[in-house]
From TrEMBL:
Source organism of this protein record: Paenacidovorax monticola
Protein name per the record: DegT/DnrJ/EryC1/StrS aminotransferase family protein
Keyword Phosphoprotein set for record: no
Gene Ontology BP annotations: polysaccharide biosynthetic process
Keyword line: Aminotransferase, Pyridoxal phosphate, Transferase
GO molecular function (one): transaminase activity
Length: 385
């Protein structure tokens, strides 16, 4: 009997999302408009801090780019970020002509190591981009303390971190300058493609709003609905085309409403993996500290060296049983562009390197059933037991 293929992630889209998208399509307004505003407001409401402003964009990459642009980053500046992340985290630094400085991660959490940040600071350092790997918060106390001491900006890459808490506060309402979330297809909520940049600084919010739509000082919906002449706007900078559509936002409003149920399911799945995989020669992903929330965007297992299993062979064995996996990530220092431009070698990042060699992201998504998960667990027991 061949079982259907089980992917490592799949979006959870229900009738509510389909109805909302249909309604948006029928409304006559498909680009940025009332649904986008509603999604931004619902997002601030969810984060629970009304001093925040949320700027909806068409990706987290766009959000990170707008954040660094608004903070005035430019050529000659350096930004410290972890090597164990997706290239989007730092490609935006290059968009602005600045240079990312990649550092190693903590062996337990796989998050950026604050000691490595301290060691990487130079007179050119302008910002830190922590990434809450897999949905577990970075040590934000240490990061904010370093930032304060050295006068650095902090832009959180929160692509995995909805909802994640640090000492009881949701990522998005911490003390950073901007936090960027992703609604890419495999993230904890999705709009197909989409993102949200969140800040408490009204000037940064305003700059990001202007720059997300061609550097125009009025967006299309404002021109369409306000009393001032509809045709008039002023271009105040060479902006970008980063706005979210109302079709995507309609989906986002419904996905956000389901987020509490989503995170509950992810927590259940993580707890079951923890329990059922505990006896195998694996390093299981770290839990959040007591009282904090792990978003469980990813469930990353690491093969213990002494058991002698090859990571690629285990991936193949799972694949032979119809189980999809991934690897998060091929560290940036291994990619030709970053490696060659900054002369990076694996020896500079021993922790990320060892983690990379042994890691597998196993299926983790809300729509998987207990039976789906049992298949993954049983196969891992067969291969590693
Ligand atoms: C998904 C992801 C991004 C990019 O998100 P998009 O919305 O696809 O631009 C950035 N950083 C990390 C760590 C990610 O996982």
């Amino acid at each position: 009997m061949t079982l259907p293929f089980l992917p490592f992630a799949r979006p959870d889209i229900g009738d509510a999302e389909i109805a909302a998208v249909t309604e948006a399509l029928r409304s006559g307004w498909v680009t940025t408009g009332p649904k986008t505003r509603e999604f931004e407001q619902a997002f601030v409401q969810y984060l629970g801090d009304h001093r925040l402003e949320a700027v909806a964009v068409n990706s987290a990459t766009a959000g990170l780019h707008l954040a660094l642009e608004a903070l005035g980053l430019g050529p000659g500046d350096e930004v410290i970020a972890p090597t164990l992340t997706f290239t989007a985290t730092v490609e935006v630094v290059r968009y602005l002509g600045a240079d990312p400085v990649l550092v190693d991660v903590d062996p337990v959490t796989l998050n950026i190591d604050p000691e490595k940040i301290r060691a990487a600071i130079t007179p050119r350092t302008k910002a830190i981009i922590p990434v809450h790997y897999g949905g577990l918060a970075c040590d934000m106390d240490a990061i904010f303390s370093i930032a304060r001491t050295h006068g650095l900006k902090v832009v959180e890459d929160a692509a995995h971190a909805l909802p994640t808490t640090w000492k009881g506060a949701l990522v998005g309402q911490l003390a950073s300058d901007v936090t960027a979330f992703s609604f890419y297809a495999n993230k904890t909520i999705t709009t197909g493609e989409g993102g949200m940049a969140v800040t408490r600084n009204p000037e940064i919010a305003q700059r990001m709003r202007v720059m997300r739509l061609h550097g125009m000082n009025r967006d299309a919906f404002d021109r369409f609905t306000s009393r001032a002449p509809a045709w008039y706007y002023e271009v105040i900078a060479p902006g970008f085309k980063y706005n979210m559509t109302d079709v995507a936002a309609a989906m986002g409003v419904e996905q956000l409403a389901r987020l509490p149920a989503f995170v509950q399911r992810r927590q259940q799945l993580a707890a079951r993996y923890h329990q059922q995989l505990a006896a195998l020669p694996l390093t299981l992903p770290a839990n959040a500290p007591a009282g904090d929330t792990h978003a469980w965007h990813l469930y990353v297992i690491r093969l213990n060296e002494e058991a002698g299993h090859e990571r690629d062979a285990v991936i193949q064995a799972l694949s032979d049983q119809g189980i999809g996996t991934s690897v998060h990530y091929v560290p940036l220092h291994r990619h030709p562009y970053w490696r060659d431009r900054y002369q990076l070698t694996p020896g500079m990042f021993p922790v990320a390197e060892a983690a990379y060699q042994s890691m597998i992201s196993i299926p983790m998504f809300t729509a998987m059933s207990d039976a789906d998960q049992d298949r993954v667990i049983a196969t891992l027991h067969e291969v590693l037991g």
